[in-house]
Amino acid sequence: MRVLLTGSSGWLGRFLAPMLRKAGHEPFGLDIVPGAATDFVGSVADRALVDRLFAEHDFGGIIHAGALHQPDMVRFPRQAFVDANITGTLNLLEAAVAHEISSFVFTSTTSLMITQAIRDDVHDSAVWLDETSGPLVPRNIYGVTKRAAEELCRLTHADHALPVVILRTARFFPGKDMHEQLSGDNLKANEFLHRRLTVEDCARAHIVALEKAPQIGFGLYIVSAPPPFTRETVAALKADAQSVIAELFPEAASLYAARGWSLPPHIGRVYDPGAIERDLGFRCQTDFSAVLDCLREGAALPFVHDPLYVPPPIKLRTRRANAREVRNDTPQDKQV
Questions:
Q1: What is the CATH number of the domain that holds 93?
Q2: Domain for residue 321, yes or no?
Q3: Is 258 among the domain residues?
Q4: Is residue 266 a contact partner of residue 202, using CB atoms and an 8 Å limit?
Q5: 120 within domain boundaries
Q6: In what helix (H) or strand (E) does residue 27 lie, and over which residues does it extend?
Q7: Are 151 and 91 within 8 A, CB to CB?
Q8: How far apart are CA 336 and CA 334, in angstroms?
Q9: Do residues 172 and 111 lie in contact, with contact meaning Cβ atoms separated by under 8 Å?
Q10: Is-above-0.85 flag for pTM?
Q11: Alpha helices of the chain — where are they, by DSSP H?
Q12: DSSP strand E in 79-217: where?
């Protein structure tokens, strides 16, 4: 089918587009910045543009991966998040209903599930998070707008029977993390225990959701590498995660030591992706065991770490700011 792919110039979009083609689909990329997978540069917040694209192209499905993300908060006002993440989603949903689209996949985030208490790691045990966890109290504008967009998806399905699958994705971006005490590779490897997946697995999950949305009707799923833990281990994970890991992976400590890496002393949250495996038959191909296999074999790590990665919207905003500075520094008689 022809698939409208928003966010096609982003990290996920650049992997999704070729995978969609390989799966027999025809992606049409829409983004606010140019990219190899982007066919049209524009914003989903522009309703006239959205309506025109739907009128001109015979879309059978939509993967709405475009959004302003948490790193974008440093340069964009809250209204920009409302416009892109809420209004843009509503525009696409209403166009999908009007054109009888057969499948709508919305890329959400596990970030909206993280309250300030979870962020501050104040609980006595690790918090086990699945689709039933709540109440949801997002701690920033990114989470708030993603949560609102989820509700628009739910409401649209309820009112119009639009097949919708919401994917709350764990971390998959390659960029620099805030935890300076560990290297980027080390931190990302640790997160495969409880809150990370590869961008390739994230893309695969979206394709499965696209193809199975008509039979699902409506579904909301966490997408993350399967954790090796159980709910019964949450207290031990908070108190002494390294002992729990040692029981499950006896080689982990020595493999890490050979790299100069550190295993996490405690784990404060665990994402449970069991529902998407049960309902859609999807399971991430890369997990913590795969990371250890690469360490043991001396192979390349099965994920990308790029400390210089910057999301496309920030690049766009930076270029615009630089352009304004150049104009402001230009002598008055040379301005046009």
A1: 3.40.50.720
A2: no
A3: no
A4: no
A5: yes
A6: strand 26-31
A7: no
A8: 7
A9: no
A10: yes
A11: 11-22, 47-56, 78-81, 88-98, 116-119, 141-160, 184-191, 199-216, 234-248, 252-259, 274-280, 288-297, 312-329
A12: 103-109, 127-129, 164-169
Query: Token pair 């009707």 is at which residue?
Result: 217
What is the bridge-based pairing of β-strands 40-41 and 26-31?
parallel
Neighbours of 92 (CB within 10 A): 28
Q: How many residues does the chain have?
A: 336
CB atoms within 10 A of CB 2: 13
How far apart, in whole angstroms, are the C-alpha atoms of residue 101 and residue 211?
Answer: 12
**32 and 41 Cβ atoms separated by less than 8 Å:** yes
* DSSP class of 173: -
Is residue 110 domain-resident? Answer: yes
Parallel, antiparallel, or unpaired for β 40-41 and 2-6? unpaired
Tokens, residue 220:
């909301």
Alpha-carbon gap, residue 133 to 149, rounded angstroms: 18
Domain that holds residue 29: 2-227+270-287+307-315
Nearest to 92, CA basis, from 33, 38, 49, 147: 49
Report the 10 Å Cβ neighbour count for 239.
Answer: 14
Tens of each residue's pLDDT in the chain, 336 residues: 999 999 999 999 999 999 999 999 999 999 999 999 999 999 999 999 999 999 999 999 999 999 998 888 888 999 999 999 999 999 999 999 999 999 999 999 999 999 999 999 999 999 999 999 999 999 999 999 999 999 999 999 999 999 999 999 999 999 876 656 788 999 999 999 999 999 999 999 999 999 999 999 999 999 999 999 999 999 999 999 999 999 999 999 999 999 999 999 999 999 999 999 999 999 999 999 999 999 999 999 999 888 777 777 655 554 454 444 334 433 332 222
The number of domains in the chain is 1
CA 115 – CA 119 distance, rounded (Å): 6
